[in-house]
Amino acid sequence: MARFLRFWLSPSPQRALVIGGSGSLGSSVISVFKNHWETTNLDFIENKEANYNIVVSPADDTEKHLAQANEVLKGKYDMILSTAGGWCQGDIESANVFSQVEMMMRNNVYPSVLAGHLATKYATETGIIVLSGSLLVFKENTPSMLAYGICKTMVHNIALNLSTKQNLTSENRIICLVPDILNTEVNRESMPSADHTKWVSPMKIAEKLYEWGDGKNVPENGSFITFKLDKDVTIEYM
Amino acid sequence: MARFLRFWLSPSPQRALVIGGSGSLGSSVISVFKNHWETTNLDFIENKEANYNIVVSPADDTEKHLAQANEVLKGKYDMILSTAGGWCQGDIESANVFSQVEMMMRNNVYPSVLAGHLATKYATETGIIVLSGSLLVFKENTPSMLAYGICKTMVHNIALNLSTKQNLTSENRIICLVPDILNTEVNRESMPSADHTKWVSPMKIAEKLYEWGDGKNVPENGSFITFKLDKDVTIEYM
């Protein structure tokens, strides 16, 4: 009740910009944040729960996406998150390895570069910037999913570079999520024999992100964070 | 004389395929190898010292480059090297960071993926595959040269993935070069106040690569190798 009153009396709610806010993690973030935050989604499709949408075309390059974002974004954002991501299987021998690298760049890397670039212009002085990596890639080489692995490694490296805060304030925090397999319908169906009981749902991750936005248990700048489900979902520093 | 006779009497010399064989390191490799090896260069411009050239267009994608390579390459190659590379300065805030990432992908990453892909088809059973990374990026975060750093990190990760040898033989070796600044005219001119006396020339690196091709002091599979100049050039495992 106290929190509701504080929000209700507040002249301007906190603001989140979600790159990839129509995907499984991004739409969970917008669902969790929407009651108390102003939310802006940048994605290939609209998210009707978001206050603002920047719908970009996969046929356009990231510079065009940036131009569209610059037309819509105003003021400063308390959280800027890239929840975009994509996965594919295939090794170096695959005839389509080159197009797989291009696809993984578009799905994983460019949204991260865009989030970082937008953060230099639109993050508040204490703003939190979140990128989305991969626990598997963080821990192991992944030759069977070469394009995915090398692109997620690049996301991890973008986070490390941003966390030097050359282009941000000393109070900004860059956090790289390195989740394990998410508990989504698609993942359960594609891995029917796996043990789903330990998989963390996107909603649970979104709730942790909301805590951070609310100033609670915010990981340190430069952290790589994964999520474990026991009775409850807990975060772990990698 | 003995070596010359051995080569002259040998029905088939050893064979090297150099991706980027017209660049500063690549042309040194072809100069050093050409007297005793058959050399094939794949690059945007011809190298007249090479026995064979596959001249590709920067306007075409890597799948097209691969198709051109498949038309020319025959048999097996004892060394497959990507000596391609490119550098640029610029941080996450740069308006052209997105096009810089694309350029660095084309200059550094796609040639490495192409070399790895071609190795699965054209490397001999004991063939050596060499990729070109960066000592600076291997050791540090490089936010001032973000696109370069994230793309060289990707090259390092490609090397780690290839060195699992999922798509190669147990006797193949993947070696990732992580040179410091090369002693080239361009580099000396662009960094006039630096101490050039410790910079290693591309020819010296090419001579080390030739030793490896000749079976001498070949680094272990999965090695990251740099070069130091004291009196002589020595290799160092990273």
How does this structure look, described?
2 copies of one chain form a homodimer. With 238 residues, the first copy, chain A, is α/β, with parallel strands linked by helices. The first copy, chain A, has one domain (12-181, 203-224): NAD(P)-binding Rossmann-like Domain (Rossmann fold), CATH 3.40.50. Chain A has helices at residues 2-9, 24-33, 62-72, 97-122, 135-139, 146-162, 185-190, 202-213, and strands spanning 14-19, 37-43, 52-55, 77-82, 123-132, 173-177, 223-229, 233-237. The mean pLDDT of chain A is 94.
Question: Features of this protein?
Answer:
homodimer, 6,7-dihydropteridine reductase activity (chains A, B), tetrahydrobiopterin biosynthesis (chains A, B), EC 1.5.1.34 (chains A, B), 238 residues, NAD(P)-bd_dom_sf (chains A, B), alpha/beta, 8 helices, Rossmann fold, eight-stranded mixed β-sheet
Please specify the SSE layout and strand pairing.
Two copies of one chain form a homodimer.
Chain A: H1 2-9, E1 14-19, H2 24-33, E2 37-43, E3 52-55, H3 62-72, E4 77-82, H4 97-122, E5 123-132, H5 135-139, H6 146-162, E6 173-177, H7 185-190, H8 202-213, E7 223-229, E8 233-237
Parallel strand pairs in A: 1-2, 1-4, 2-3, 4-5, 5-6, 6-7
Antiparallel strand pairs in A: 7-8
Helix pairs in contact in A: 2-8, 4-6
TL;DR of this structure?
The first copy, chain A, is an alpha/beta fold and 238 residues long.
Largest sheet features of chain A: 8 strands, mixed
pLDDT < 50 runs, ≥5 residues of chain A? none
Q: Assembly type of the shown chains?
A: homodimer
- Biggest sheet strand order of chain A reads 3-2-1-4-5-6-7-8
Rg over CA atoms of chain A: 17 Å
By DSSP, the count of extended strands of chain A is 8
* Global structural class of chain A: alpha/beta
CATH architecture classification of chain A: 3-Layer(aba) Sandwich
Q: What is the string of helix and strand elements of chain A? A: HEHEEHEHEHHEHHEE
The domain count of chain A comes to 1
* Mean pLDDT across all amino acids of chain A: 94
